[in-house]
Specification:
This protein is of the alpha/beta class. The protein has 13 helices and twelve strands. It has two domains: 32-140 and 286-292, Rossmann fold (3-Layer(aba) Sandwich); 142-280 and 317-341, Response regulator (Rossmann fold), CATH 3.40.50.
Amino acid sequence: MKKILASILISVLVLSFVTMTACKKEEEKPGSKLKVVLYLNGTLGDKSFFDSANRGIEMAIQDFGIEGKTIEGGNDSSRWEPDLEQLCQGDWDIIIAGTWQLQESLEKLAPKYPDKKFFTYDTSVDYSKGNLGNIYSILYKQNESSFLVGALAALVTTSDMPLANPEKIIGFLGGMDIPVINDFKVGYIQGAKYIDPEVQVLVSYAASYTDPAKGKELALAQYNQGADISFNVAGETGLGLLDAAKEMKKYAIGVDSDQYLMFKDSDPEKASYIVTSMMKNVDKSIHRAIKLHIDGKLPYGQAEALGIKEGGVGVADNENYRKVVPEEFRNKIKELEEKILNGEIVVETAFGE
């Protein structure tokens, strides 16, 4: 009898072990991984905003072992919503779609697919409409780090740096005349005026994020009007500003990604004119959101604004910045950053409270 009971006990233990092993293998199947898709209402290769978002997915794949993919929707806006609906009908767990141009589409689709989770970035859906509890919105305090690069631009234009001229004139190139771009502009101008109230800021809007030729034309006009440094806030269009800086041998400030690093190998001469970049860390914010989702801590149904304190924005500190920009200027930027963090400086915004 004891032998029979022992045999039964062994059989049960073996069966339990086999079942647990099978379950573990089932969990480890690729199909059981968190599946995240990033949809771009544009294309990769802008070397700023969309490339940064794509890096966020790549970082999450590497760090968290998720299954991730980036889909380029192109510039035909009629495709965007049908593309998103198709993704909703697939087996993706999280669908990421940023910019204000996709806000209404997400507000329409999210309630239809309550089992899906959505991230949007650089905009927020209107949660007062209801039924949007499966969307997490990421906003950025781009005005904060724009204040810092505006201060830097003022320091440059009033200096004896090799490419600075006697005129106190700086430039700003925006992709479109919309609140998020104007939030950059407001901070940039405030930062410049903080250093020297007499600094003049030339402002141009390209009405496009995908027209480098237009960006170059507008930037050349600014440089010809006396600007010795200009700030690119225009996505792919802004690549034309960097071309203009190279042609005119003037300074430039990049945006979103560290644009010096983007060009230092392929076009080192162009890169040498990019004194720094105002970093909108879309990559880090997407990586952060995926981590919080995995941990069960992501605040769906609301928007978060990420500033300097949260690592959402910043100023690129690279070898060219340290080479071209005098140490006293770099120290001044650090000082101003601390003043923003401790509330001594309150940066103005283009958005209502």
